């Protein structure tokens, strides 16, 4: 599969926290860095996501916000 999004980061699913309608999927991309995405429970099932399985974090955004404390 090819995607137009430039930011495709390969990693490993380390946690799936299911809620009523959405799941928080955590993907470790190396060096202890974990990205988290909120996707529907249906998408988790359709993609057959499982902890320990390889997956890609695909990021497509027009803006990136940065803040400091």
Gist?
The protein is mainly beta and 69 residues long. The chain has one helix at residues 41-46, and strands spanning 7-18, 22-30, 33-40, 54-59.
Protein described:
Helix content is 9%, strand content 51%. With 69 residues, it is mainly β. It has one domain: RNA polymerase II/Efflux pump adaptor protein, barrel-sandwich hybrid domain (OB fold (Dihydrolipoamide Acetyltransferase, E2P), Beta Barrel). It has a four-stranded antiparallel β-sheet. A hairpin with a 2-residue loop joins β2 and β3. The N and C termini lie far apart (40 Å).
Features:
69 residues, mainly beta, four-stranded antiparallel sheet
What is the typical, i.e. mean, pLDDT? Answer: 93
CATH topology: OB fold (Dihydrolipoamide Acetyltransferase, E2P)
Q: Structural class of the secondary elements?
A: mainly beta
CATH architecture descriptor text: Beta Barrel
Tell me the span between the first and last alpha carbons: 40 Å
What is the percentage of strand-forming residues? over 45%
Helical segment count: 1
Number of strands: 4
Biggest sheet: strands, sense, closure?
A: 4 strands, antiparallel
**Radius of gyration based on Cα positions:** 13 Å
In the sheet with the most strands, the strands line up as: 3-2-1-4
| Low-pLDDT segments | none
- CATH evolutionary superfamily: RNA polymerase II/Efflux pump adaptor protein, barrel-sandwich hybrid domain
Domain Mop: 2-68
Organism: Acetobacter peroxydans
Pfam families: TOBE
Protein name: Transporter
